[in-house]
Amino acid sequence: MAKKLMKGCEAIGEAAVQAGCRLFFGYPITPQNEIPEYLSARLPQVGGTFVQAESEVAASNMLYGASGAGCRCLTSSSSPGISLMMEGVSYIAASELPVVIVNIMRGGPGLGGILPSQSDYLQATKGGGHGDYRCLVLAPSTVQEAADLVMDAFDLADKYRNPVLVLGDGLIGQMMEPVEFKRSTRLEDLPAKSWATTGCKGRERNIINSLYLDPEVLEAHNWKLVRKYEEMARTECRHEFWSPHGDADVLFVAYGSVARIAKTAIDALAEKGVKAALFRPITLFPFPGDALEKAAARVKHVLVSELSTGQMLEDVRFHLGKHRPVSFYGRVGGVIMTPDELVAEALKLAGKAG
Amino acid sequence: MSAPQPLRPNDYKTALKPVWCPGCGDFGVVATVYRALAQLRLPPEKVAILSGIGCSSRLPGYVAAYGFNGVHGRALPVATGLKASRPDLTVLVAGGDGDGVSIGAGHFQHAARRNVDVTYLLMDNQIYGLTKGQAAPTTPSGDKTKSTLYGNPDPPVDPCELALASGATFVARSFSSDMKGQVEILCAAIAHEGFAVVDVISPCVTFRGDDQYDFWKPKLRSLPADHDPSDRMAALRYCREREVLTTGILYREARPGLVARQQVTRAAAGYDPAQPPSVAALVHSFYP
Prior knowledge:
The complex is a heterodimer. Chain A is an alpha/beta fold. Chain A contains 12 helices and 14 strands. Chain A folds into 2 domains: 4-235, Thiamin diphosphate (ThDP)-binding fold, Pyr/PP domains (Rossmann fold), CATH 3.40.50.970; 240-350, 3-Layer(aba) Sandwich (Rossmann fold), CATH 3.40.50. By secondary structure, chain B is of the alpha/beta class. Helix content of chain B is 31%, strand content 17%. Chain B is built from 10 helices and 10 strands. Chain B is globular and about 70 Å long. Chain A binds chain B through residues 27-30, 33, 36-37, 40-41, 44, 50, 52, 54-56, 80, 111, and chain B through 53, 69, 71-73, 98, 102-103, 105, 128, 130-132, 134-135, 137, 146-150.
């Protein structure tokens, strides 16, 4: 398929359609309205259904119902709306249903603002709703990668029967870049879902449930979920290690939009005689901790940069251990750091400031 | 020394300039709020205006009174909390149709059922304006919007009908540029004990089309002189109108509000506001 110039949000919508998603439920919120708008036009063309829900709580529960019936389905929102969806997400995770959720993050807490942010990292990677559960979290840093990861998200959701969250930010959602849809899924080729409520004629009936009143049964269910997350950690960790200037002294750790800013900073640093590299987690849960440990072992300084006050920082510090100094540079509220700011931070660390 | 009583509409204006689009109906609505507050001689420190999220929910910023910009769809629960804790304040809630009868629809019904003593100014533009033009719960069937390219497949909600069905004790409809009619309705709504709903048709010229005023003005009708506002079924006849838009106080009923009923509950529990028990007596009641 030829490349097309598309807005991130629209590319996400088309990627979902190409991945076999035929149902979308959502509620307007900036800066991701182009996803529902695109799908409201596109889904009817392919025999799908778009429903503008009365709220995000409703949207997440519509998703619960559609996924229980075995259909590939999607919702998208931005930070405050994602918080509202957490009721449905917790039940979906507990009932082990595959859904894809896109969060185009904006500044918070509360109503916050509408500009790009990465301040939902902890909510995304540590559960978000109530109970002991995790979503698999994918973080694109380009429009192309957003499209690729949305397609992968549907496969991963089916594979693990688990919600998959695609965590972007306002920059990824709103900017335009060339994008190519590398594959197109035919609905008839999708693996059968033996657990789905599709009519029980000739078989035992399937029940979608998250209620376990017997404490021992609920405990067993919780440990079963944990084994699933452990399997994700063994097989699904993804990252990019970018070191174009040879053995680096400074390692940037950044994901999403910030990783792109770090790449520009790394090239600028090379001209100033400081070698830097980037470690970019692509899966935020499971976090690619082992790979990070290896990358960090070869550098003098580790610098985490996020559009938050330091959320992924907690995971980086956890994996590198308390004896390894980790520096942090964050901007929040919709303010985005410039490459120059990251260059200045790295120069300070390398002892070459001013 | 007491400050002079501000009684002119302009005294309720703040220094903030509204960011609404030129031609937005909400300019008319906020002007009627200034006039109604002045007419009722309500000092700003005795008035609180709350809102949820949406274009219309910016209104509290433009009124010199206590202001509260809350959560999308949750303005009525926030207002219920405020009124319960400060019954002495006149509480107004401003919000859009998406805020009120989509995401906040559940709260709308319960505020009506509880007859919470607040005035609900529902600024109804039939579209999601702040997010740039998706279908709202009030968008007519068949209308094309950014999220209904092939025409809105769903029927609209009529906020007045919903209010009447939910047991609201004051239900009115007005049009944003009808200054005189709306000030009259708003004054009556604020003076009403209990939950007063005013559904103001407030055109969005940006996302509903710049012919909105030409569309609405020929449809406007006043309630007939013989309308009985105590007759709920008669009021329902003015809901879901298509060819005309009838403005006025559709329904009014005297029923104790939340504040009055809380006093009844306290009396039943043995509390006498004239002789509130001392802290020592309260503690003693646990250690007889």
